[in-house]
């Protein structure tokens, strides 16, 4: 099980899209995907792996990590973009 958090409903949809696109390029398709269009909680079933992408307030409400508290977990943090990649932060540019 993979549990992801997002800061907006748009970001939930973007994460789902990126996972789907990346795995489809490798020939992997989900058995089913639910909730992606609403952007609050999406679940993608890949049989051996189930991906949950939550809008942050919804993630806290459902607390899947609490239900699976005895299972081993690994936290993955975002990597900062490399300099010169063309990535801009709205906070640094005063908004886009």
CATH architecture of the domain at 2-68: 2-Layer Sandwich
Largest sheet strand order:
1-4-3-2
Strand content: 15-25%
Low-confidence stretches: 85-96
CATH-defined fold name of the domain at 2-68: Beta Polymerase, domain 2
State the total count of DSSP E strands.
Answer: 4
Mean pLDDT: 82
Instruction: Give the topology string: H per helix, E per strand.
Output: EHEEEHHH
Q: Please give the oligomerization state of what you see.
A: single chain
Shape descriptor reads globular
Can you put this structure into words, describing what you see?
The chain has four helices and four strands. The protein is an alpha+beta fold and about 100 residues long. The termini are far apart.
Considering the chains and any ligands shown, give keywords for the structure:
globular, alpha+beta, single chain, disordered C terminus, 4 strands, four-stranded mixed β-sheet, Beta Polymerase, domain 2, 33% helix, 96 residues
Question: In short, what is this structure?
Answer:
This protein has 96 residues and is an alpha+beta fold. The chain has helices at 9-25, 56-62, 64-67, 90-93; strands at 2-6, 32-34, 41-45, 50-55. It contains four helices and four strands.
SSE blueprint:
Layout lengths: L1 E5 L2 H17 L6 E3 L6 E5 L4 E6 H7 L1 H4 L22 H4 L3
Parallel strand pairs: 1-4
Antiparallel strand pairs: 2-3, 3-4
């Amino acid at each position: 099980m993979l549990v992801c958090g997002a800061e907006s409903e748009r970001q939930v949809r973007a994460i789902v899209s990126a996972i789907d696109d990346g795995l489809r390029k490798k020939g992997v398709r989900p058995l089913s995907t639910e909730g992606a269009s609403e952007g609050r909680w999406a679940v993608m079933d890949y049989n051996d792996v189930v991906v949950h992408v939550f809008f942050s307030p919804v993630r806290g409400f459902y607390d899947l990590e609490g239900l699976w508290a005895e299972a081993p977990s690994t936290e993955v943090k975002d990597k900062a973009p490399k300099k010169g990649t063309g990535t801009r932060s709205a906070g640094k540019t005063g908004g886009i």
